[in-house]
Specification:
CATH class: Mainly Alpha
CATH architecture: Up-down Bundle
CATH topology: Ferritin
Strand content: under 5%
CATH superfamily: Ferritin, core subunit, four-helix bundle
Structural class: mainly alpha
Helix content: over 70%
Number of strands: 0
């Protein structure tokens, strides 16, 4: 997807969360380790929640901010993760799965952080700041929940 506006950025981010959710869910039933399978199920449900949260930004974004051009500020492929729905995550242990998912979220956070200072209008800066705050909060919550799973 070519990202030209902040709306495109939001849609693209929503699609990334949706694809990751689908891939994680796909591998959950295929994983031989019960702990990793439960982790995959939890992560898939969390990514589905994230997709819904990002979709809410699409619906509620200030049109002035949403239609502001952003493509000059984004690298061609800013986020890298495994989004092909093959058995990739079914081959990883729980720690490697967590590390990949956490890295995915950190890349989104880094992208949003880089965009906050580059937004040329206040509404766009506020939109990106809100997206950043949501992503940071949800990533912290995800990390805490995964750590709790490890304690069991």
């Amino acid at each position: 997807m070519e990202i030209k506006t902040f709306y495109d950025l939001i849609e693209w981010t929503r699609e990334l969360h949706a694809k990751l959710a689908k891939c994680l869910a796909h591998c959950a039933s295929r994983h031989g380790d019960e702990r990793a399978s439960m982790l995959l199920e939890y992560l898939a449900s969390h990514e589905t929640e994230m997709e819904k949260m990002v979709a809410a930004f699409e619906r509620q974004a200030d049109p002035k901010a949403a239609h502001t051009y952003v493509y000059d500020y984004i690298p061609h492929n800013p986020i890298t993760t495994h989004l092909d729905c093959d058995d990739h995550y079914a081959k990883l242990d729980a720690d490697a799965i967590s590390a990949e998912v956490f890295d995915f979220h950190e890349q989104i956070i880094d992208l949003y952080q880089s965009l906050v200072g580059k937004a040329e209008i206040r509404e766009a800066a506020e939109l990106v700041q809100s997206l950043l705050a949501m992503e940071e909060h949800e990533t912290k919550r995800l990390v805490r929940q995964v750590e709790r799973m490890d304690d069991l």
